[in-house]
Amino acid sequence: MAGNTQINCNGGQGNSSDETKEDRLSSLPDDILIRILSHLSIYTALKTSRLSRRWRNLWKGLTNFTFSTRSMNFEALENILYQLTSPNIRVFDISFRLHDDSEQFQSNFKAAESCFLHILRRNVEVLKVRSDSYLAVPNCVFNCHTLVVLELDGELDFELKLDEENDLPLDGTTFNLPNLKKLRLRVDSCDYCLLRTLLKFCPLLEDLCLILDLSGGDLLEIVAPNVKYLNIDNLVVTPYSDVVINAPKLAKIKICDMCSYYSFETIPTSLVEASVNFRSYDDTVWQVFDGQYHGWTVEGHALAMSKFFRGMSSVSSFKLKCFENIHMFLGSSNDGDMPVFHDLTFFKAKLDCLVGWEDLLCSLHCFPNLMHLELKISDTFFWGPSRWFAPIVLPDCLLSKLRKITLKEIWGIRDELKLIEFILNHANVLEELLIYVSTFIKEHGVNRLWKEYKFCEALFNLSRSFLTCKIVFSGVHINAASDAFEKGLIGCQILTDYMTDTDSVTSD
């Protein structure tokens, strides 16, 4: 008679009396286990050495090295590095969150330089360094032929000696990053020459991310002949800084900057996607500058930037957050002509109030082939008048191209219903209208539920030129769609537990 059997952890059959079986995980090949450990921080990987003799030395084969610490103990880090057995370290990601301990830093500086040299000799491909306290980055970081990604962010100091007139290194310093494709760098007014010099020695660079700390009156030149993706984030609120971009192969650009002046040295003809945010820092420009600061004004900034926007007329996707007048950024300070974005099919923007709709509808003449429009109404609109006026001449895209419109931060007021009705009566091919209600409405509980319901009911009763257009309403308490609207009844989902007997509401 056959004895009792059971499935053991290795997936086979064995006698129930077998008590010592190797677990499945430990039975995997070394290269797979090392790949698993590579997803952990170095300290967590080190702890696995205590599991068993099988795991004791596995961590030493790591090729991905992630290190995060609140101390700058480079001597301990160096000791770990020297125990690694792999000839290559593909990723070295190091992050310092430090307390003020300058004495500790001074004692570890030589060990820090030794650590970076050790990593660079291991054919590192991805090097990421972040620190929220002063950290000197040795010159050797800029001399590595295997680097593909270099990210230097935080309170870093570069003790390079550079020829600022010719943008070249001095005193035997060597720049050599022939395979670098992605660079992230924090740049302040002391590092402009470093950036210009560095870009000269990155012939394959495609992805450039700059965190700027500009001072008033600065001129920053970005010369990157092969860069396709450019991301700029300015951390300060000082005007009069000029940023000149010379990247003829640029395909995507993203800018978050309150008031610097941008221009293209060479117009990027391959640009397909642009995202420009001139409303950063919680829209505090009015509090900081009171609308004007040493001659800087919203109107002056917009007119000066109109030429920059003309250089982006090849885009198919455009996201714009600016001050209240979009029309100014698309106009010209010279002749008032508007650029035409023939390839643009998606446009996203933010309006300060309903008055801005008239300005927006005039601006839509620039986008003759627009198919998707996404707009957000600022939550500050109630501080001023909310009336809007329809333009005399309607844009072509509204009449014959727009198929989807998304409206966010709607308050459910009468003027908004008039605006939406105007859209529905003139958007002849509109297929979908998405309405999202603002979360800032003062009413709460049942009062808000009733207000959302009545607005939704009025919304679905509006006339429309394209009868198959679907309207989708998303509120705090109610979600509903027009295709469920039949014979004066609304079928909707109640998101809050106000209804005890049913999860839907209908009204005659």
UniProtKB/TrEMBL annotation:
Domain F-box: 22-70
Matches recorded under InterPro entries: F-box-like_dom_sf, F-box_AtFBL13-like, F-box_dom, FBD, FBL13/AtMIF1-like, LRR_dom_sf, LRR_FXL15/At3g58940/PEG3-like
Gene3D superfamilies: Ribonuclease Inhibitor
Biased composition (Polar residues): 1-10
Region (Disordered): 1-23
Superkingdom of origin organism: Eukaryota
Leader sequence residues: none
Protein's recorded name: F-box domain-containing protein
Source organism of the structure: Beta vulgaris subsp. vulgaris
